[in-house]
Amino acid sequence: MNVYDLMDKYSKTNLILRKYRNSSMKYEELIRKSDALASYIIKRFDNNKMPIVVCGHKEHLMLVCFLSCTKSGHAYIPVDSSMSKERIKYIVENSNSKLIFNISDNKLHLDNIDIKNCAEIETIINSHATMIPDKIYRVQDEDIHYIICTSGSTGKPKGVKTTSNCLKSFVNWALTLWDYSEGTHYVFMNQAPFSFDLSVMDLYLSLYTGSTLFSIDNQMISNMKELFSYLKSSDINIWVSTPSFAEMCLTDINFNNNLLPRLKVMLFCGEVLTNNCVQKLQNRFKYISIINLYGPTEATVAVTAIKIDTELSSNVNPLPVGYIKNDCKLFIVEKNNSVLNNDEDCLEFNGVSYRILPEGEKGEIIISGKSVSPGYFNNNEISKNVFSKRIINGIENRYYKTEDEGYIKDNLLYYCGRIDSQIKLDGLRIELENIANSLREIEFIENAVVLPVKKENKLQYLAAVVTLNKVLLKKDFEVGLVIKEKLKNLLSNYMIPRKIIIKEHLPMTINGKINRRLLTEELK
Ligand code: AMP
């Protein structure tokens, strides 16, 4: 059954789709309202299948808008209301969108674009209350289901097109990651904003399984007391977040089994999951499965996964990011400088050839298969550099060059950082994630980020920002000296950061990842 038919089925029951703050929404309400709104969109834009921007945060109406877009044949572009007006404007202008559902309080003014606020959306829903859109309009198969905007290296957002097939492939695989049995009803935690593709994991796993999505918002994330009292009322079974978010929760001793007695599975994705973090979670929550997933938005949320048991968390450091899903393939490559290689051993992106490396060797990670996006929306130039296609046995295979570095050992992928986090200091190549991993090996260090410090665009030195897992009765500079001394046993001298900064917490971005940009600013 497809997601639309499944939801129609759930709408005939009493199942609760959503809990957010002190209100809830049933599947019945989602279907009724999205049918009405989709009917309006079809009436107005029957011949124009442009994407539709939906701006808001965690409101129930966000989900109604998403579904009404796809039921009427339009991809939706989720935009979080915390984004700056310039960023929202850029996204809208590059989307060809003629309609915005603005659920937020932000006042948006854009020429020639119809912006509907909450009250107007509700009025439309009421005036189309009995209408049911024809199934032929539904987004399906190779149609674009949603477009999520990620930050490009230029700072300009790139809209990643995700097809219904990509989404289906992700969901079918993700449901095999724990002992899911059809008909089981779960409560999923939603931490990520809908503009970040991690949220696709909790949102669509909920929708496919008829489960409840329990959302937390920005305001709660900045107020632990409120967050914990809200979590206490949640009955969450499946936790979906970035590791940084879990680390933030772990700083409070009340984050344990008593707070979340029904927790069964924790799914982590988006950044490095450290051994420290896993071991703490394993101590606090005795009977849970912790799963590390890896993937970029361009390959639909995640393409590798592995359950991290106590044996792995205590014996393998850094942790692997997992086995590839069965309808995708991983390649580790390096730029090809010779012309002698056989086609079979190479992949090409925009005229540049990359040689496939043997197992165990470190290089750039390339993902191919059913989860790979067809490219960036309205951005062929950048798409060409990182997406490519090959026809194999009459079937089109898509490839995405991740700009992540890694290696494969015993079929397991290990992540080594972003390619652009490789820097040259005094002519020597350094991988920042390598240094961060060594810092995390020091017994009193909880987590670490290593950043290059530049002056007038020239690299001056490296700085490490670390959090500690215990109180050391020493001044910060003395702790810094101890860390440097310990690093001498783990790294070459030129890799030891000149500056060590100790912090209580690493700051998070709105998506829940470590905020490197803010830390870099602080170092200036
Ligand atoms: P995004 O497209 O915003 O979801 O970010 C994707 C990037 O996050 C990947 O290309 C990786 O650099 C990083 N990432 C995702 N999952 C993991 C993981 N499990 N461990 C380390 N880095 C990860």
Automatic annotation (TrEMBL):
Segments passing through the bilayer: none
Record Gene3D superfamilies: 3.30.300.30, N-terminal domain of ligase-like
Domain of life of the native organism: Bacteria
InterPro entries linked: AMP-bd_C (IPR025110), AMP-bd_C_sf (IPR045851), AMP-binding_CS (IPR020845), AMP-dep_synth/lig_dom (IPR000873), ANL_N_sf (IPR042099)
Any Pfam family matching the protein: AMP-binding
MF term (GO), any: ligase activity
Keyword 4Fe-4S tagged: no
AMP-binding enzyme C-terminal domain boundaries: 437-513
The entry's keywords: ATP-binding, Cytoplasm, Ligase, Nucleotide-binding
Cross-referenced PROSITE patterns: AMP_BINDING (PS00455)
EC number: 6.1.1.13
Domain (AMP-dependent synthetase/ligase): residue spans on this chain: 20-377
Protein family (similarity comment): Belongs to the ATP-dependent AMP-binding enzyme family. DltA subfamily.
PANTHER family reported for this sequence: ENZYME, PUTATIVE (JCVI)-RELATED, PTHR45398
Function text: Catalyzes the first step in the D-alanylation of lipoteichoic acid (LTA), the activation of D-alanine and its transfer onto the D-alanyl carrier protein (Dcp) DltC. In an ATP-dependent two-step reaction, forms a high energy D-alanyl-AMP intermediate, followed by transfer of the D-alanyl residue as a thiol ester to the phosphopantheinyl prosthetic group of the Dcp. D-alanylation of LTA plays an important role in modulating the properties of the cell wall in Gram-positive bacteria, influencing the net charge of the cell wall.
Name assigned to this protein: D-alanine--poly(Phosphoribitol) ligase subunit DltA
Upper classification of the organism: Bacteria, Bacillati, Bacillota, Clostridia, Eubacteriales
Primary gene name: dltA
